[in-house]
Structures are given as structure tokens and as C-alpha cells.
Amino acid sequence: MAVAEAGSQPALRRRRLRLDLTTPTLLGLPLAWLGVFFVVPIAIVAAYSFNVYSLFPGPHGFTLRAWHDFLHSSVYLALFWKSVKMSLTVSAIIVLLAYPLAYYLALSGTKRKYVLLLLLIAPFLTSYLLRVLAWKVILGNQGVVNTFLFWTGLRSPDHPISQLLYSRFAVMLVLGYIWLPFVALPIFVSLENLDRRLLEAASDLGASRLQAFWRVTLPLSLPGVVAAFLFVFIPTLGEFVTPSLVGGANGYMYGNQIVDLFGTGFPDWETGSVLAIFLLGIVAVLTVVFARFLQPRQVVAD
Amino acid sequence: MDVALSKNGARLLRVFFALVVAFLYAPIVILLIFSFNNSAVPSFPLSGFTLHWYHEFLVNSDLRGALETSAIIAALSSIGAVVLGVLASIALTRRRFRAKSAVSALLLSPLVIPYVVFGISLLLLFHTIGVPRSLLTVVIGHIVISLPYTILVLVPRLDQIDVSLEEAAFDLGASRLRTFRSITLPLILPAIVSSFLIAFTTSFDEYAVASFVVGTRVTFPIYLYSALRFPNQLPQVIAVAVVVLVLSLVVVVGAEVGRRVAERRFVALEETG
């Protein structure tokens, strides 16, 4: 027994050395994974948009044709601006709604702060599609809202409020509903980190609560507000699931256009790639410009 | 005097908070009510109590198959994401290397990529290298999008741990791997569990990326999406929705409470030991 142990010891040590957690061992796998399944795929789409590469037979070669057509098309750019406006509106409204919520949690001195925070955030952590489904059930012509109005006689069954579902309004309502809990988080973190002594100092120096809010609290929580805004704006800008479920023709967004260009109807992968890379470029610019507000710590409330 | 809020201000905010929470939970409650409603169309007035829709979905083999597929994909992809996430997080918190900020930006970048763009990118990749779409292609995509979430959970926890514990083990002759196994791993176990749960739920619920790379075995979100087009399936889909929503709320709240309790215990252990 003792002999066997002594004999296996050097072999064990050698194996350990080979398996040891050096920096390349640690980073190799994650970086390789992202390289092959994240960076390369995007590079393929970029190559596709310049017609350097195509899966279909036909003439290839570097050309800016699809990009030129895109930048001079009123249709795609108008759709892009429509999506920007919808996302901006949703983001602005829910940041305004979330601020008081976060303020209440962080500064009212309530003892059940984290319980209430969890209560607020929990819906965000449940199924996205099912929350959209709920609104489909609620907003339809024969849905909960309309049939409730018929039932109570507030509206005649011949005239349902038909703009509720399949409209721009429906898309914005559902997107706002989905993202609202999440938006409160970064604002809460920035308010939570606020040094209350600053507010006491302001008060001692004669500032009213409102003045202290405008001159101290709000400016100091602004990074959280910017982060919150971007956390909604960036994902909703490329959204296609919600508009395809509750948007109808009116709520059609830029993301839906990308899907359709890669779809089965009239596929045009070259143009689709241009639209995709353009969206990615905008998101990348936003992320880089506002990088200092997008610190991961803003999300991890502890 | 409270410097942040007057008494009335606090009262007002409390009411506002309650209203928003009501708004957030109302749709879920409405689904709950209509899942027991004895009518093929979810509309007022309510027409009686039934468990029919729950029974219907229990015997629906397509639906069960989709749930099963999603569970397999979620399990595989969350294990993958946690393994990659642990490796990357240790490198980010314990090692010095060049271009660290660029590496961490790359590791976190799947957080901001529009899923529609990532979906078509993966689709083009799999077309290019001739890999048929399957369960595996969805797993590959889900590992990419879950990875940053695991890192966001693991890095703060690794930052909290006193490095001298690891240094002591290392000085006493343990290899880095042994140090990790005996010291670091037990200390970050709660964070590993919660990052696993986050990755699992992310994958289980993911529609956008999966819709591009899914094979013939559909996932639960993809099944749901297609079921939404057939009104006759709506009531049983609502019943499933209720089960999944309630289960995920329980898991989420349970995981968070569990993590806090576990971490508090660990912090206490660290302080005494």
C-alpha cells in the first residue's frame, strides 16, 4: 500500500502541474468559445453585407452597393427612426416611473427594502413570452379589457376599443411593462450608494428638501439613471418578438425587418446583413460612448 | 427631520410603489384567473371553475416534449456557461494580464448585442460550416448569451473573498488547482448555484436566438410562440403559463433568499475563522 502510494505520487504531481490553472488555461476556453461562436459569426454577417461572401452562387466581390442602397433608402431609415422613437419614448417613460420607486426603496428608510426590491424585480425574472401572452389576452378585441367593458355596459360589443392590440401603443405598453422592474435596479444602486451625510449637510446649510434633491441627490444619481436608460434603450431598439406578437402592421419595428429579410418570404440576406451590422454599429457606439455608466456593478445589487 | 423625504412624501411614494407592483402583477393574476375559467375564450364574464385546461396540457405530448427539450438545453447550456464563467471570472479577479479591460469587455459584450443580430449571425455560421440546426446549436448560442450573466454574479463574490486564504494554501504547497478546489470553490459555491439558476432560466425562456438556430425538436418558448397563433390552444397555454410563471417566481425568490442566507453564513465563518 505504502509502496503503491509512493510510486503514484510523482505521476500525480505531474498531472496536477499540467492541469494547473494558469492564465491561458483559465481564459483559453471562454475566449475560444466567444471567438468561434460570437466574433466569427458577426464577421461573417459583416462580410455578407459587403458581398465578400455569400452562401448562394453568383458573382461575389467587395461592393458597397447594399450599404449605399440602405443609406439612400427612405424605407429602411424611416423604419429605423420609428424604432428609435418608440424605444426612446418607452425608455424615458419607464425611467421616470422607476425613479420614484428606487427613491422610495433607497431613501425612505423602510426596513423591508430588499424584500420590496425583490417583489419589484421578480416579474422581470419570469418568462418574457408569457408576460407578452398575458397582454395579448388582456388587450384583444375579445380580450379581458374589451369584454369587461361590454359586460359592464361601458361599451357596446359592436365597438370594441380596437387600437388596444396590434398597434404601436400595444408594443410600447408591453415593452414598458417588461422592462420597468429592471430599470429600477441601477437607479436603486446609485441612490443606495449616496452618502446621506451630504443631504444632512445640505439641510443644515438651509436647503429645502426639494433644493437638496435638485442640487445633490439627482446629480449624484444621474449615472444610475443613464445606465437604466441604456439598459432599456439598447435591447428594445432591436426588439422583434414583442412587435411581432402584439404590434401588427403599425407596431412593426426595425428588428422585424431584419427577421423578414432573412425569412422565407422574399429573403435578401445581403440587405439583411447591412441592416444587422448597422444596428450593431449603433449599439456598439452607444455602449462605448456611455461605457463609464455601464459598469457591471450598476447591475449587481447586493 | 428626515432629509430625503417628508412624511407625506413617503406616504405618496408608498402608494405609488403599491400601484406599480399591482400593475406588474395584475397580468399574471389575470392569467391565473382565466386558467381556471370554463370557457374556450379568455373573456368576461367568467363562466365557471374548471381544471380542464390543466388536464389538457398535462396530456398534450407536444407541449411536454417542448418542455423537456427546453429543460435539456437549459441544463446543458447553463453547465457550459457556468464552467466558462468560473474560468473567466477567476482570471479576471486573480490574474494580471495584458489587455484585461478589452478581454472583460469582450466577455460581457453578449449582454448588449441585439439578439436578432446574434441569431442571424449564428445561423450564417452554421450554414457556412455545414452544421445542421439541432438541439446542440441552440445550446451553443445559449452558452454565449448566458456567459456574461454568470460572470456578473461570480466576479463580485470572488472580489469579496479574502485573497490571503488562497495565498496561504498556495504557500503551504497546494497547487493552484488544489487551492481552487479546497478553498475558492467552497467559498463561491452559493454564487455558482445562483449563476447556474440565472443561466438556466435565461436559456429556458430564450426565444429570439433559438428561433434562428432551432432544429426539428422545438423548445418551450418556440412551441408557445407558435401556439399563440391558434386561438383554440390559448386556454391550455394560459394554464401552462401560470404553472411556469408561478414556478419561476418560486425558484427566483427561493434562490435569492438561499443565496443571501448562505453568503451570510460564509461571511460569518470567514470573520470567525
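Chain B is about 75% helix and 0% strand.
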